Amino acid sequence: MKYVKIKSAVVLTLLLSSVACKKNLDELYQNPDGYSNAMAQQSGVSIIAGFFTSQLSQGFFLTGDYGAVYHQLRSGNRTIASSIQAYNVMAEGSNKALADVEHDWGTGGFNETVFNMVSTQWMTPILWAQREYNNSPKRSKLDSLYINLLHVLKGYAYQRATDMYDKVPYIETGSAGGLDHVKAKYIGQSDIYPKIISDYKDAEAALVNLTLSSTEQASFTQQDILFGGSILQWRKYINSLRLRAAMNVSEAMPQLTTQVLTELQGKPLLSDVNDVAGISDVTLIALNRICNELGITRSYRERVDECRAGKKFLQDVMYCTPTEVTKNVNGKDYTYFSGENSAAGLAAGTVDPRVSYIFAPDWSGRYIGMDTKWDGNTDPNSYLNKMLRGNYINDAIMTDVSKTTYYYGVNNSQSIALAGAAKTDLAKRDSFLLANLRSRLANYDDNQGNVGTENPLVAELNIRPEFNFAAKYPTISSVETELSLAEAAVRNLGTVSGSARDHYKNAIILSCKHWYNLNINNNYSKSTLPALPTTMDDSRINARPAVEYNADAYAEFAAQKFDAMSSQQKVQAIFNQLQLHYGLFNFEVPFTAARRLIKYVGTNPAAMYETFKWKERMTYPSSVQASDPDGWAQISGNNNPDLPVWLTGRTTKWKNALE
Fold first, then answer.
1. Fewer beta carbons within 10 Å, N or C terminal of the chain?
2. CA angle 201, 204, 205 (to 5 degrees)
3. What DSSP element (H or E) covers 314?
4. Measured distance between the N- and C-terminal CA atoms of the chain, rounded to whole angstroms
């Protein structure tokens, strides 16, 4: 939807913004700055329509948010490692000592955001719309539609919150809840999930036979900044949310999962490549404020250490395998990675096309990522050392004693001057160069602490899709829906149309097309509005994939690998696809999936760092104890990051290598 059409939504959001800043639950439901029927009539829509559009534009709800995403990148990525912070796996960067994400400067923004938002701005427009609806002497068809959809959005908000914390303050919206002096009651996943699953069912049923006049449709189209007024898309969204909820309770309430799967037969689900429920930065944020102030890309720019590619995805999931070579130099054997198989594999359909869509190679053109395992540099032939050694092993610096400076990088723009014994002793050069490159990588000297530069020593995330300001924030997508159906089929959780293989294969095809589109359709540059950072190299900005590789051929190759797996391995593979697809955009869904799958898979399916404790849940804001002592009494016993949430079906914390 074009920017001009949602100006009223932005105004409504501003009118409601003061409520979002309040942390005292008792002050939650005050009249939001006197927004009134008169103001709604002046804008040409009902007050309920205004609250509906305002709800869609809430911060970190269906869009990203700079602050929230920043902390989820920093701390969330230390929890499930969707990409690699190099200094956390290298002796040159940190110590091999157990750390957590609970006691550092990022804790508050990481743990508290979702709780604070579901307790304030995510609920406020819904409750005020409900009050207006309840008090309306004559309810229009559109207002009834908006209330129905607001109940869906309420369910989505509570699903996100209860996944993170288990018990959260819950308000029934049928009577406008807290607006009628009903205090929020803390309830957990075992109570919330049956409620929202039932609400989703009722909401979708109300849309099945709904018809709108041309005038009503035009008004709905203008107010609906999520799906542009498409009733079918709303039905697909609601049913897919219901499927997500059913899968989330599959360990704790398998009968409910089976029931939902049966009831969803024949109903529309998110199924197309463009079926992404989310809103882009350019829809809601002033264009000049996106990259440097309010948009999610600011968080990517400031958290460049989250942008290193991971071995788990490139090699273990996408079949981009390094070529290992042993070479005798001056009478000694050295092992190194000479390259990898992407060139031939992409053409043949044996390497995932997303290698070239999601990731960018190192300066020499290699797609080789870093491992999450600790590299203390005690093994000269460790994975990391073999990767870095490939930079210089064939250079004359290794065999010509008169050459004392090693040049590398694009146009030989980088150099390492030999010192000490390495200047005169060829046998000392491998260890000298290796130590220097390791230090540069650990300290981000290879990219000057910026993403999208031309001389990185390891593959990283591609800036073209990540910095596409028009990307819809993927709160849920057709890829997740297909993977949920695949998992349900593998685990025999209920009736599923189509085989696990077919759904797994289709998820890969959809994801390949999604990431190709994000990459190839990025038309932003350093001179557009919004603008890409000036620190990025033009060669990276303009590096579109040469072709759209055959996603069908690769998906069939991956499906054949899938066929040979055990049930547990298949569920792990399904999770890998979920984590790969959502990447840095969506931490919450893979985090919830990882926790609930530990019991079935038998270990943690996420790519864990050895040096960080596993986290089972978010902890509550400390302010709750003072602002709501009664509520605190209900939740304080669960305010423990080592306590698994109910939906995991576990009571014992999963522990990694150092715990």
1. C
2. 85
3. none
4. 49
**Contact partners, residue 347, CB within 8 Å, separation at least 6:** 549
**pLDDT (tens digit per residue) in 526-575:** 999 999 999 999 999 999 998 999 999 999 999 999 999 999 999 999 99
- Which stretch of 5-14, 235-244, 419-428, 598-607 has the lowest confidence by average pLDDT? 5-14
Query: What is the spatial distance between Cα 318 and Cα 367, in angstroms, rounded to a whole number?
Result: 11
d(CA 469, CA 472): 8
Q: Measuring CA to CA, which residue among 197, 186, 201, 187 is closest to residue 248?
A: 197
Residue type at 625?
Q
| DSSP H helices in 209-331 | 214-223, 231-248, 254-263, 281-284, 296-302, 311
Q: Is the per-residue pLDDT at 454 higher than 60?
A: yes
pLDDT tens column, 208-238: 999 999 999 999 999 999 999 999 999 999 9
Question: How does DSSP assign 514-566, residue by residue?
Answer: HHHHHHHT----TTSSS---TTS-HHHHT---SS---HHHHHHHHHHHHHTS-
- Distance CA(52)–CA(58), nearest Å, equals 10
For the chain, helix, strand, coil in percent to 5 are 50, 5, 40
Q: Which residue in this structure is represented by tokens 């997740």? A: 480
CA pair distance 226, 204, nearest whole angstrom: 16
Residue 68 structure tokens: 């929230």
Give tens-digit pLDDT for 5-14.
333 333 333 2
Q: What is the DSSP letter of 375?
A: B
The secondary element (H helix, E strand) that includes residue 339 is: strand 332-340
Reading the block at residue 321, the tokens are 């395998």
| pLDDT attached to residue 3 | 27
Q: Which amino acid is at 637?
A: G
Q: Using CA atoms, how far apart are residues 384 and 369, in angstroms rounded to an integer?
A: 9
Write the single-letter amino acid at 541.
Answer: I
Structure tokens at 10: 């932005």
Tell me what pLDDT residue 474 has.
98
| Token duo for residue 489 | 């089929």
**74-88, 175-189, 443-457 — which is least confidently predicted?**
175-189
Do the beta carbons of residue 181 and residue 162 sit within 8 Å? no
Half-sphere exposure of 493 (CA within 13 A, CB side): 28
Secondary structure (DSSP) of 426-491: GGGHHHHHHHHHHHHHHTTTTTTT-TT-S--SS-EE-HHHHT-TTPPP-SEEHHHHHHHHHHHHHT
